[in-house]
Design goal:
182 residues, mainly alpha, transmembrane helix, DUF2975
């Protein structure tokens, strides 16, 4: 990845994070404006706003994990077992954000019994978008795991002697527990 692409991605991540922080500040006002005027939903404004703030916080976890993975890619450490933690954090954040965003919509439709085509469309878009992005993250995890396994298999074959345990740890490759020195 070129330096200019990394810079563009970092700028995009900063803009998205700043926008999400701004959104979190305006969500209570927005929730009051949308649901506070109706008797069926005025008691639900605060819980729905808190749920939306939590969903945005989960998306912020995804953004921070993306920043961390981008930093690892810059250092050439993306294909390492530790990188899977960042992808797992982003996946967990995406799943939690999807559930938190869909819960008020489903509650509004099923329990409260209000809403219309717009709420149904928002629910479908939320679930489909969250599921799609989660699938992309799971594919990224599988690709990183496959690349790590390929690098681990290729490393001893390229060396004239077997690598030492210190060089294996330095390259992010762990020996199985109980395996003796090579």
């Amino acid at each position: 990845m070129t330096t200019s692409r990394r810079l563009v991605l970092r700028i995009a991540l900063v803009i998205l994070l700043a926008g999400s922080l701004l959104l979190q500040g305006f969500l209570p006002v927005l929730a009051e404006a949308v649901g506070g005027g109706y008797t069926e939903t005025e008691r639900l404004v605060v819980p729905y706003a808190l749920t939306a703030i939590a969903a945005v916080a989960c998306l912020q976890v995804c953004l921070v994990a993306g920043w961390w993975l981008l930093a690892r890619a810059r250092r050439g450490e993306l294909v390492a077992p530790r990188s899977l933690r960042g992808v797992d954090a982003a996946t967990a954040g995406m799943v939690a954000a999807t559930v938190l965003a869909a819960a008020p919509l489903a509650h509004l439709l099923v329990v409260v019994g209000v809403g219309g085509p717009g709420v149904v469309l928002a629910l479908v878009a939320c679930v489909a978008g969250g599921a799609g992005l989660t699938r992309v993250l799971r594919s990224l995890r599988a690709d990183l795991r496959c690349a790590h396994t390929t690098d681990a298999d290729r490393l001893p074959a390229q060396a004239s002697t077997r690598p030492s345990p210190v060089s294996l740890r330095k390259n992010g490759i762990a020996r199985p527990r109980g395996a003796g020195p090579q």
